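Hi all, long-time lurker, first post. I run a small reading group and we've been trying to get comfortable going from sequence to structure in the token notation. Rather than ask abstract questions, I figured I'd post a concrete chain and ask someone more experienced to write out its structure so we can walk through it together at our next meeting. Sequence below, copied exactly:
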Amino acid sequence: MRRSVIRPLLALPLLFASSSLPAQAEDHPLGAMLDPHHHSTLIYPPAELEFHKSGTAHVRCTISAAGIATDCQSSASQPDFGLAAEQMAYSSTFLPAYQNSVAVPGTWEKTYT
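-- Answer (accepted) --
Happy to help. Here is the structure in token form:
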């Protein structure tokens, strides 16, 4: 008999916590992300492929409310890797950030190896 009283009491805090989460999510914008259906591929730089070089590139872009990369900056172990990552971002489509169900400008970043 004691178990049947304790289980509903344990569920009450979870019920109240889960009902307050959507209100908090609306306060912070959801970040921009690469559209999985409309993006170009990252092309490995032919000059680096010829010399069997590998490396990394980190690209960070500002994404407009229309889902277009407007300002991209990259840092890479080889310049060709950074250029390839920027080219991929500029030629791709993004899902913009949303705040209160309205598309707003946001940022997107990714590291490629």
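A couple of things your group might point at:
The chain is about 40% helix and 30% strand.
The first helix runs from residue 2 to 27.
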